[in-house]
Amino acid sequence: MQKLHNASPEQINRCFTHFGEYIDQALRDWNIPGAAVAVLQGDKVLHSQGHGLRDVENNLPVTSDTRFPIASMTKAFTAMGAALLVDDGLLDWDQPIRDVLPEFRLHDEYASQHANLRDLLCHRTGLPRHDFTWYRQSVTDGELVKNLRHLQPSTSFRGMWQYNNLMYETTGYLCAKIAGEENWESLMQNRILAPLGLNHTSANFDPSCTKYNDVALPYMIKRDSQERVKTPRYIHPTGMAAGSIQSTLNDLIIWHQLHNQQGIHQGKAFVSPHNLKQMHKPHMLIPATATKEQMFGNNLFSYGLGWFVEPYQGVTLVQHGGNLDGFSVIGGVVPELDISIIVLTNGNGKSLRDALLYEALDRALGVQGNDWSQQFLQRNAEVVKADTQGARNSSADKTDAPASHALADYVGTYNAPAYQAIEIALADDKATDNPQGGSGEGDLRILYSGEWWPLNHYHHNVFEADMARHDEAIKLSFELDTHGHITALNLPIEPDIGQMSFARQLDTQVPGSLQTRLQGRYQHPVGTLMVNITPDGDGLSYQLTGQNKMPLQLIKREADDTKLTFKLEGDAESLLVFKGGAEGFTQLQIKQPGKGYVCSRLA
C-alpha cells in the first residue's frame, strides 16, 4: 500500500479517474444490480452518479435521483430531531426519559428511572435488539413503548453497547409528543426534510404515491450460489424512527454536507455546533469484530448519537449503514477534511457498501493499493465457507428419532409478551397460503416474521423453518409438560437472550351445550369426597369437598367430543379428563403427579 502524504488536488483527481469503472466491476463481482455513489470534498464533487440498474427486469438505470430506502441511516435523522429539540430547550440529553414520558418503563427498574436520551441513542440500555416485536407487524410506537417493560435485558444498564432499534422508536415517539407533532413522520418533514429542501426524501415509502417514478427495486443475492433474485419490498405500515426514510443520492449529499459544515445550511445555523458535536463524538465503545480487527488492524470503534465513530487512516470517520430486504446502504463524513461519501445499493451484499465506502475514502485521502472490494469479497467467501461447514457439522448431530406427537398436535398459536404470535398449521392448510412465503412443501407451516414458511421435522420435537427467501433456516423445539402435552415453542429469536419460550394459547371456550353435559357431581374413590363441576362465568369450575373452587381451562378436545382434557388454573400439574358420549359424560379422571383417580358421575 502506498500513502501519498499531503496529496495534491491533481493526485486526488487521478485517484478518481477510474473510480466509476471500479464501481461497475465491483457490482459485477458481487452480482448486485445497481448503486448510487457520491464522494465530495467541500463543494468539489469527486464522483457522483448512478451505476447499473435500479430495475433489472425493465433495464432501468440507477440515477442520482433514484429513491432508495436508507434503512438505519435514518437513525442520524432521528438523532438530529432530538438535537433540534435540545436546542429549543424542550429536551435535555441527560434528563431521565421518565420525566418527560411517564409511561416509559423497562424490565430493569433502575434503567427505567435513569435512562436518558444519550442512553437511548447510543445503545446502552442493557436491552438487546428484540426486533421481532415490531418487524412486519402493524404496531404503533405507543404500543412498542408500552411493551418495553416485558423485554428481557441481556446485560446491565450502561454495561455495554448493544444495537437496539426499539430505543430509536421510543425517541421518535417522545420527540413527536414534545414537539406537538402528529407523529415522527411529521416531525421529520416539518423540522428537517422541508427546511433542508430534501424534496425527494420522505419518512416512509408510500406504495400508492406516483410522485416518484425513479425507484430502486430490491434484490437478494444468495450466500452459497450468489444467485440474484428479485424480492418483495418491505414496507412498514407506519414511519419508523429507526429506519424507514427513503431518499436519493442528491438529497443525501445535502444532508451529509450539513454534518461537515458545523450544522450550517445555506449560510444559516440549522443545528448548534455543540449539539452537532454531541452526535459525532464517541459515547460508547464497541467491541471490535474479528473481521474489523483483521482487516483494519484496529479495535477502537465507538458509537455517538445516531452515528458510528472510528479512526481510519489518521482521520475520524463518522458513518452509519443500513440494511433492509434487498438493500444495503451507507453514508459517512470526515468533518476535519469536509469529506462526504454515500453508497446506496439495491442488493443485500452489505459488505460491498463498506468496500466502496473505504475505497472512496482511501482515494479522497490519496491512499492507494487496498482494493477493498476484493478484500471484502475474499473475506465474504471465507465466512460463507465457514458457515456452510458449520451447517454440515450441525446436521451431523441429526438423528432419526421421530416426533413424539402426530403433526396435527403441534398446530396452534404460541405467544410471548410483546412479541408477534407464532402460528403453526398443517402444510396442506390452504388458509396459510402466502405468495411471499416458502414453497409450501414441508411437514407443517409456520407464520413467523410476517410470512408463512415450510416447517420440517428435524428429530425428536425439533423442527426446522425453511426460510429460503432469506437464505436462512431456523431450528425450533416444542416443550412438553409432565403429561406429555405440548405447552410451548422454544425459538432462538433473540441471540443475546438465548431460547425464548412462546406459550401455547389454549382454547378455553367450551360451548354451552358441552358445559351442560359436563356439569354435575362425581363420586371420588375416597368415599367421603365429592367433585362438583359447576358454571363459573363463561366457563366451568372444579371443587373438591372441603376445598375452594378452581376455574377449569380447556387444553384438548377430541373431534367427536367424547373426551375433553382440562387443567386447573394455577395448577400446571393436575389434569381433569372427562369421558363420555352424546348423552353425557360418565367418567372423570383426575391425573396428578404420581397418582390418579377415576370418579364416576352421579345421576
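(ticket continues) Second input and output from the same batch:
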Amino acid sequence: MESKNTMKNVTLEEGESLNIVNENLDALKIIFPEAFTEGFVNFDTLRQLLGDEVDEGDEKYGLNWHGKKKARQISLTPSTGTLRPCPEESTNWDTTQNLFIEGDNLEVLKLLQKSYAGKIKMIYIDPPYNTGKEFIYPDHFQDNLETYLRYTGQKDNEGFKMSSNVESSGRFHTTWLNMLYPRLKLARNLLKSNGVVFISIDDNEVGNLRSISDEIFGSDNFVGVFVINSTPNARDYGHIGKMHEYALMYVRDAIEAKTYQIPEQNKKFKYSDANGDFNIHPLYNSNVAFNKGNRPNLFYPFYIDPDSIVDDYFLSICLEKSENSIEVYPPLSQKEGVQFVWRWGKEKAKDGLDKEIVGYKMGNGEFRIVQKMRHSSKIIRSLLSDKMYSTRRGTAEVEKLFGKKIFSFPKPRALLDKFLVAGSTDGDVVLDLFAGSCSTADALFHRNASDGHNRQFIMVQLPESTEEYPEASKAGFKSIADIGKERMRLAAKKVKKEFPDCDSDFGFKVFKLDSSNIRAWNPESDDLEKTLLDHTEHLVEGRSEEDVLYELLLKRGVNLTVPIEQKEIGGKSVYSIGFGVLFACLNVTINLDEVESLAKGILDWHKELKPASDTQIVFRDSAFADDIAKTNMTAILEQNGITHVRSL
C-alpha cells in the first residue's frame, strides 16, 4: 500500500527545551491580539492598550548591573541538552517518584520547563553565598551546556579557565547576580499558582537578592524575611558578632498562595466551651492582597447583640439587623488604608454563628468578630532562634550519618523541615536547585514518615569536585553530587529503622545532564562534510534506547517519573511512555513486509490504553528499508487517528 502521507523528521525546535519567548508571545497574543501586525509586536499599539501603566521615563526604579541583559537573555535561550537516565546509581528505579539530577541547574531548569511548568509546590534555593570564592557556576553565556561539558571533563578543557570572584575584581556583585538571576527566572516558571519559594542568604547579598526577587516574583508576592540563628556562638570578628543568616520567602501568586501551619508542642488555650479548648483570632483577613476590590463577596456586615452573652466572655452575632444591634464590618488597614475583608463567606458564616465565630468587645470599646481557634498549630514565625537551626547542627547530622566529617555547614534538617511543613503537603513536589549534600531530601524523608504524607522531590546538584573536602575525597567521593546520593541512601535506611511501619517512597531516580542523544538536533557546524556523511544515522553512537526514550519524554513535556512499558510487536520492541502519550520503536530495521503487522499492533495497544492527550509515535529514521515502507507506516497510523508520526 502506497500513500502520499510522509513521516516528518523531528525538527530542531522539537529537540530543544521550551522556548519561553514564544510562550510569552503566544500569551500576549491572547490578551492583546490587536498589538500584533504580521506576526510582530506593534509596541505603539501595545502602549496605547496599556494606557497609563507604561513608564516611558529615562529613570526607573530597580537594580541594574553590567550583564543583566545577557542574564535575562540566557534564561530565554532554549537548551539542546538532555538528561540521561542512570538506573545503576538509583534506588527503586521502577517505582520511585523522586528525582536526583546531576548537572548545572541553569540547563536543568531549562530542560524541566516543558514537563514541570506550573507543577512545583515548593522551591528551596540555597545558592553559593558571595564570599569572594570561585564560582563553580560560570557565566559563560554563549553556550552554557558547552561550558558544563568542559567543566565536567566530557569535552576538551583546553582554554577553559574559571576565575575567582574576589571583591577587588570590580565585578564582585555583578558576577553573583549574573549567576543567580536567570536561575530565579526559570525557577518561577515551575511554581504552581499556589506555590512558595524559600531562598537562603547571608548579609553579603541579602539586599541585592531582595531587589532581583521583587523584580522576578513581583514585590506584591514578597511574604517576608526569616532571621535564622545559624551561629549561636557568633562569629567574633569585625564590629558585630554575627549569629544569623536569612531566608526570603516569596509566593507565585499572593491571592492563590497556600501555606500550612506548624504544629505546636504543649499548646496552651485561654478559653473553653462544650466543644473543647480554644483561643480567638480576628475573622478579618489582614492580607491586603485580599480586599474589597477583588473579594466583594467577603465584604458584608455582622450584627452584634451587646446584651446577649455567649460562653461567659463573648457576644451573640447574626447576619441580619435587629433592634439595638451593632453593625460590624472588617476594619481598614492602618498602614495602606485598604479595606480588609472577612476570611469566611456568608454561607460558611451562617453555619458558624455563635458556635465557631462570636462577637468580642475589645479593651478600647471597639467590637470585633472573632473565630475560635482550636488547632494546636500556628503559622511559621519569622524569627527562628532555636539552636537546632545552626549550621553546626547540619554538619553534625552529616557526620553522624557517614561516620566521619565529610561535608561542612549544610543546612540543618530542622530548618528544611520547618519550610517543608509550611510550604507543602501530601502529593506536592519540592524542588531544591542547589541540593549540596541533599539536606532537603533527608528532611523530606523524615517529614513524610512523621505525618504520613507523600511529598516528592527533585534535587539538582552540580558534580563539584571534593578537592576542598579531603575526608570526602579519602572516602571515595569524587563529587558533591556523589555525597548527596549516598546521604539519601543512608537517610532512607535511618528513617525506615525509626519508622518500621512506614511505606513512604524512599527511592530516587538519577539523571545526568549531557548533550542530546540525537545528532540532528545539534549538528557539527564546523564539519559539515562529516555531518552529511553521518546523517544516515541520527542517534549518537554509544547511547542506549533508554537514553533516547527519556529525551523524547522530556522534550514532549511528560513527567520524568511516568511509567515506560515495553512489548514485542511483530518481532520489534515497542515502548509506551506515560500510558500511551508517546510510543517509540527504535529497532534498527523495519522492512516493507513488517510495516502492516507492526502498525496494527501499535494501534491495538493504543486503543487499549486510551491516552487522554494526542499520541505521538517515533521511529528510527534509518530503520526503514526504503521510503515506501516509511510512507506506508505513516499512512496506516494517520488513517486510524494517530497524526503525530515522527522519525529521528
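Agent notes: The mean pLDDT is 88. The CA atoms of residues 102 and 343 lie 44 Å apart. Closing as not reproducible unless the customer responds.
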